[in-house]
Amino acid sequence: MKPVTFLVALTTVAVVLSTVSASPYGGWQPIENIHNYQIQEIAKFAVVMHNLENNFKHPLRLVSIRRGLVQVVDGMNYKLDVMVAEGNSLDSRGSMYRTEVHVRLGAMELIFFTRIVKGLN
Protein backbone atom coordinates (compact mmCIF):
# COMPACT_ATOMS: atom_id res chain seq x y z
CA MET A 1 0.00 0.00 0.00
CA LYS A 2 1.47 3.35 -1.03
CA PRO A 3 1.33 5.86 1.84
CA VAL A 4 -0.70 8.97 1.12
CA THR A 5 -0.77 11.93 3.46
CA PHE A 6 -3.08 14.90 3.74
CA LEU A 7 -2.78 18.04 5.79
CA VAL A 8 -5.25 18.44 8.63
CA ALA A 9 -5.82 21.03 11.32
CA LEU A 10 -2.79 21.31 13.58
CA THR A 11 -5.11 21.35 16.58
CA THR A 12 -6.09 17.70 16.03
CA VAL A 13 -3.38 16.18 18.23
CA ALA A 14 -3.88 18.65 21.09
CA VAL A 15 -7.65 18.26 21.16
CA VAL A 16 -7.56 14.48 20.83
CA LEU A 17 -5.09 14.21 23.69
CA SER A 18 -7.79 15.66 25.89
CA THR A 19 -10.16 12.82 24.92
CA VAL A 20 -7.93 10.06 26.28
CA SER A 21 -6.97 9.13 29.78
CA ALA A 22 -3.30 9.33 30.73
CA SER A 23 -1.38 8.37 27.58
CA PRO A 24 2.01 6.89 28.36
CA TYR A 25 4.36 7.10 25.39
CA GLY A 26 4.05 3.95 23.30
CA GLY A 27 1.08 2.33 25.05
CA TRP A 28 -2.38 1.99 23.47
CA GLN A 29 -5.07 3.79 25.47
CA PRO A 30 -8.83 3.85 24.92
CA ILE A 31 -10.31 6.96 23.34
CA GLU A 32 -12.90 8.18 25.83
CA ASN A 33 -14.92 10.28 23.39
CA ILE A 34 -15.15 8.63 19.97
CA HIS A 35 -17.76 11.25 18.98
CA ASN A 36 -15.11 13.99 19.15
CA TYR A 37 -14.93 15.97 15.89
CA GLN A 38 -11.24 15.15 15.32
CA ILE A 39 -11.81 11.41 15.81
CA GLN A 40 -14.70 11.55 13.34
CA GLU A 41 -12.43 13.32 10.82
CA ILE A 42 -9.73 10.67 11.22
CA ALA A 43 -12.31 7.91 10.59
CA LYS A 44 -13.68 9.73 7.52
CA PHE A 45 -10.12 10.13 6.22
CA ALA A 46 -9.55 6.36 6.55
CA VAL A 47 -12.72 5.54 4.61
CA VAL A 48 -11.93 8.06 1.85
CA MET A 49 -8.37 6.75 1.49
CA HIS A 50 -9.65 3.16 1.33
CA ASN A 51 -12.06 4.20 -1.43
CA LEU A 52 -9.25 5.95 -3.35
CA GLU A 53 -6.95 2.93 -3.06
CA ASN A 54 -9.73 0.73 -4.48
CA ASN A 55 -10.58 3.17 -7.30
CA PHE A 56 -14.09 3.61 -5.87
CA LYS A 57 -15.09 0.13 -7.19
CA HIS A 58 -17.27 -0.51 -4.13
CA PRO A 59 -17.22 2.81 -2.28
CA LEU A 60 -17.81 2.73 1.45
CA ARG A 61 -19.25 5.44 3.68
CA LEU A 62 -18.76 5.85 7.40
CA VAL A 63 -21.78 4.92 9.51
CA SER A 64 -20.25 5.07 12.99
CA ILE A 65 -17.16 4.56 15.11
CA ARG A 66 -17.59 1.68 17.54
CA ARG A 67 -14.35 1.90 19.51
CA GLY A 68 -10.95 3.49 19.33
CA LEU A 69 -7.46 3.39 20.76
CA VAL A 70 -4.72 5.99 20.62
CA GLN A 71 -0.95 5.54 20.90
CA VAL A 72 1.51 8.36 21.51
CA VAL A 73 4.53 7.87 19.27
CA ASP A 74 6.34 10.29 16.99
CA GLY A 75 2.90 11.79 16.44
CA MET A 76 -0.23 9.80 17.24
CA ASN A 77 -1.54 6.44 16.03
CA TYR A 78 -5.29 5.90 16.03
CA LYS A 79 -6.75 2.42 15.79
CA LEU A 80 -10.49 2.57 15.16
CA ASP A 81 -13.23 0.00 14.68
CA VAL A 82 -15.64 1.58 12.22
CA MET A 83 -19.00 0.51 10.85
CA VAL A 84 -19.32 1.29 7.14
CA ALA A 85 -22.01 0.81 4.50
CA GLU A 86 -21.59 0.41 0.75
CA GLY A 87 -22.28 3.37 -1.51
CA ASN A 88 -25.38 5.44 -0.83
CA SER A 89 -27.21 2.58 0.81
CA LEU A 90 -29.54 3.70 3.59
CA ASP A 91 -28.93 0.36 5.31
CA SER A 92 -26.94 1.30 8.41
CA ARG A 93 -26.09 -2.29 9.39
CA GLY A 94 -23.00 -2.32 7.18
CA SER A 95 -19.72 -4.08 7.89
CA MET A 96 -17.10 -3.62 10.59
CA TYR A 97 -13.59 -2.56 9.62
CA ARG A 98 -10.47 -1.87 11.66
CA THR A 99 -8.28 0.97 10.56
CA GLU A 100 -5.10 2.59 11.76
CA VAL A 101 -4.15 6.15 10.92
CA HIS A 102 -0.92 7.92 11.86
CA VAL A 103 -1.20 11.67 12.53
CA ARG A 104 1.93 13.82 12.77
CA LEU A 105 2.46 17.55 12.37
CA GLY A 106 -0.91 18.07 10.73
CA ALA A 107 -0.58 15.21 8.22
CA MET A 108 -2.50 11.91 8.19
CA GLU A 109 -1.35 8.59 6.75
CA LEU A 110 -3.52 5.49 6.39
CA ILE A 111 -1.63 2.51 7.78
CA PHE A 112 -4.29 -0.14 7.16
CA PHE A 113 -8.03 -0.63 6.61
CA THR A 114 -9.19 -4.23 7.08
CA ARG A 115 -12.59 -5.92 7.37
CA ILE A 116 -13.05 -7.63 10.74
CA VAL A 117 -15.64 -9.71 12.53
CA LYS A 118 -14.91 -8.75 16.15
CA GLY A 119 -14.20 -5.35 17.67
CA LEU A 120 -11.01 -4.26 19.41
CA ASN A 121 -10.12 -6.38 22.43
From TrEMBL:
Coiled-coil ranges per UniProt: none
Domain of life from the UniProt record: Eukaryota
Keyword Phosphoprotein on entry: no
Database matches in SUPFAM superfamilies: Cystatin/monellin
Gene Ontology terms for molecular function: cysteine-type endopeptidase inhibitor activity
InterPro entries xref list: Cystatin_dom (IPR000010), Cystatin_sf (IPR046350)
Domain Cystatin residues, every copy: 23-116
One Pfam assignment: SQAPI
Signal sequence, start to end: 1-22
Keywords: Protease inhibitor, Signal, Thiol protease inhibitor
Protein name, as recorded: Cystatin domain-containing protein
Taxonomic lineage of the native organism: Eukaryota, Viridiplantae, Streptophyta, Embryophyta, Tracheophyta
